[in-house]
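FAQ
Q: What does a multi-component entry look like?
A: The components come first, one per line:
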Amino acid sequence: MSLYRDAAVVLRTYKLGEADRITVLLTRTAGKVRAVAKGVRKTRSKFGSRLEPGSYIDAQLHEGKGELDIVTQAESVEFFPQIRTDLARLSRASALLEAVDQLTLDREPNRRLFEMLVGGLRIIDEQNPPLVIGAFFLKLLAAEGVAPVLDGCIECQSDEGPFVWAVDAGGVRCRACGSGRAVSDDALSVSRAVLGGGLRTALELPDSPVVHEVEDFAARSLEAHLERRLRSLHLLTDS
Amino acid sequence: MAGAYSEAIQDLIDALGRLPGVGPKSAQRIAFHLLKVDVDEANRLARAIVRAKERVRFCSVCFNLGEHELCEICSDVKRDDHVICVVEEPRDVVAIERTHEFRGRYHVLQGAIDHLQGVGPDQLRIRELIARVTAGGITEVIICTNPNLEGEATALYLSKVLDVPGVTISRLSSGLPVGGDLEYADELTLGRALEGRRVITGD
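Then the predicted structure of the entire assembly, as tokens:
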């Protein structure tokens, strides 16, 4: 089987040579695949905008001899126009793509992650709710099997608050076991809701300090798990 | 194949092999070609490299490449001072100049905002652009970054930070390439071409 077809989301691209790009695709069935898109940077390329980061496509790929496959055809499955016209959405979508790219290994199928990513991009394109990054990152950690422990203190199991965030340990600590940034009651219940099946209602929350607290904790936890910073997240906020 | 060539030859091959798009085999081929040709011709290449590296520098106003403090376009008095065309790379200046449609000035950002590679506004010549625009005398800024995700991100960011009264910010339009087939156009391009269609007759 040298030609195969798969649904894919473009995670990122690298320039290659004069007019080509290497695309990093998260495919539904084959996992993360690197594939060369020939001539994609030419204005008359048949691929057009379909192989830009964040595109959800139905791709035909040619299995290469080495690490790289070749994209031979690409059709849009769904396209997210708002992500390309709104800088806030674009930054968030980039953070999702970067996180997924960092978490995955080449050619390890992970269908659930694929569906999560498509869902995440769709939500950003449609409503762009304030909590989307926080919720997505918490869900990513859970899917990785390292969901933060939020039921009680991670050291002594006490469920007596108040707690402080413990990014290093992956959860929260009670005041007796450590110090750090205080956990607000609302942020704790929102985070628990996200991890416990209350995602839909959590995403309806309006922008508030609580949302930022959850996002900050989720992002720092994910960065601790990845052992690197997520560039997309800090690019336009630091300056 | 270390040790197969004398040191001088190997050095040459290694140096050539570091050039973009030149693999080990091509590096060998070019090296042997250079060794075979006249001394004059090889020297001409060496001198051209040295001269270009010595003389070429970034224009202090627009950051295009040139041989003086100001590049040729910035020092041309016949050009329109009120319009600035913002591009990513010096090569894009050449591309736009070839159209003969633009008579204003340029600003070369030297890249584009790229979330996934961590290239932010601070690594580009954006502060200098803001200074040029706020200094006055500019009526329009045409953003000609590439129509890809990084170029779009840059355009969106620029439209936010260049919000100066009396200055129009415009963006290069997207549409169908001349000579192409409609059915091959992607949704985004075709959608934008429809959005930006133009009236042929009627009101």
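Q: Is there any commentary attached?
A: Sometimes. For this entry: The two ends of chain B are 73 Å apart (CA to CA).
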